[in-house]
Structures are given as C-alpha cells and as structure tokens.
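Human:
Take a look at this sequence-structure pair and walk me through the tokens.
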Amino acid sequence: MASIPNEIESKIRQYAADTHVAEQSHMEIDVSQDLETRLDQTISGLQAQLARQKADLELLRAKVSLPVATTPSQDPRKKLQQLEELTAAYNKLADDEPSLPPKGSSIPALLATRLVQDTVRSTASGIDIVEAQLLETKQDLKTWTAELDDARALKTALQERLARLKQQHEERSDKTLTQTARETLQGKRQKTQDYERETELLHRAFNDFIDSHLAAMLAAEELGGPVAGEMMDVDDQDLAVGFSSQGKLRKGKSISDQGRQRRIDDIWGDVLGHESSERLNEKDAAAAAFRDLFRKLYEALLDVNSSGPYIPMERESAAARFLVRAKIAQYHPKDAGRMRLIDFGKELDENV
C-alpha cells in the first residue's frame, strides 16, 4: 500500500506536464474568422463539453458503491476501498486526453484579457495605496526633519552655553573674591541703568501717545461724542463746538471761553481742581485726568498705600472705560465703583 501514493503522485505530475504541452500547442488563435463567429463557436463548444461532463459525472455516481465522503473513513476496510477507487479515478484521468479548447477558440484570449484586467485593477489599487503611503511618509519625513533641526539648534545652543559657562568659571577662578563681587555689583548697576533708561523711554512714549492721540478722543467722549477710538481725528475746534445728543458734531460756532471753562469745571473739576482747570482746555484736562487715574492705579498695584490693588471711582469716566476696553484695567467683580490695573502675571479674573 505504500507504493500507491508515489504512483499517484507520478501520474499527477505527468498529467500536469501533458496538459501544459497541449495548452501551449492550442494557444494560437485563428484570426481568419470574425470575433462574433469565434465567440459563438466557443460558447457552443463549452456547452457541449459541459453536457459531456455532466453525463460522465452521472455515470460515475452510478458506479460508485460507497457514498461520496470528503474525509477518510475510520474503518480500515472502507478506507482501503476509498483509496482503491481514488486510484482508479486518477489512473483513468491520466490516460484520458486533456480537455482543452480547440484551435481557433477565443477562450485563451478571454482568459488572458481577464488576467490582464485583474492585473490592471490590482495595480491601480496598489498605486493608490502606495501614493497614500508616500504622502504619509513625506509628512513624517518633514516632521522628523523639523524635529532634527530643533534638536541640532538646541544642541548648538547648549554647547555655546556650556562654553560660556566654562569660560566664566575659568575667569572667575583666576579672580579674587573682591574682584568677583565688584564685577557682579557693576553688572547689576549696569542692568539697573538699562532698566531705568528703557523705563524713561516707555514713559515718554506713553505721554506722547496721550498728548498726540488719546487725550482728544477721551475729551470727545466726555463731551458726548463717539467712544474713544471710533473718531480718530479730533481737533481743538471740534472740542470747542461740542457734540449733539446723538454723538455728532454740532453745527455752528464754538461756545465762548467762559462757557468752555464752565464745562471743563463741570466735567473734570473734581479731578483737576479749580485753579488748574482754569489754565487747561478740554484736551489738556482729559490728558491730566487720565494721567492722574493711571498714577493712582499704578500706585495701588504696587501697594504703595497698603490699601490693596483696587481704588474707588468717583464716577465712570471715559478714561476708566478706555482702560477696561483695552484690557489694561478691570472693575471689581462685586463692586463696579472700584477698579484696578490688571496684573498680567496672574489670572485676569483674580478677585483679590
């Protein structure tokens, strides 16, 4: 029984070789006939072959004494009978002529066309997948390149920092304690001078902004005009004429000096005092009031008077509203009559 599988295997191999040779000899296509005629002949041949194979299958089923099983039987006798029947079937197949399309059939061309179409579809799908992977890889490469540049820049900065620290350490090791203390004190003095100079420059720019732009807009808002920032060009003549109840410039002549002075006293007199207000126009009065409010807020923030960061507001002035809109100051969350400068190093909604 051990020789049966080897015999079956050799016959299967021989059958495959004969089939391959026969297939190669029938691959030529007769192009003397048109395509429709060849297709009709091919369909007729396939139908006839299908009918023959159905007849052979029915004949085979009638000859088989055992039911068709897909797995070997556990009974040794039945298993032997199954093997003998399989052997007989393979022997018959090995002796039969391979069933191949006749010469001139369109089946080889159709099979080749289907194979080419399947190959084209799979290739196109593969191209889409590869393009998506390529795009993702390029994006990853871009990210990795940026991270590599950052790492190199960080490495260079750390190396430079380390070199400076080594140099400073070497320089300090060669100096006495007195020399080191003197240089440290000198460096702090230089930094203090630099800070004072920058503070002075900022103070000048702050005052220039108030005098050149902000004061006139605040004065216009106090006189009933538009909110500061909506009307950029406000001159002294506009302030002298005043604004209507709708916030528009009045038409006509400006009021008298006495009327303007009385109006300044009514609006800004409580901040400026009667004597100083007599020497100021609307723009100067608004600038002085804004500086006074900002000074009080700044001193309260620094806790100069030890009374907390909030200051009481006698009235809701245009200067106070401007500071709140600019997010420079904020009202107390529980008392709108007090306000403070915002400490940008803390949360904006801090309640203390």
Summary: The longest helix spans residues 107-173. Residues 26-32, 348-352 have pLDDT under 50 and may be disordered. The two ends are 101 Å apart (CA to CA). The CA atoms of residues 40 and 106 lie 9 Å apart.
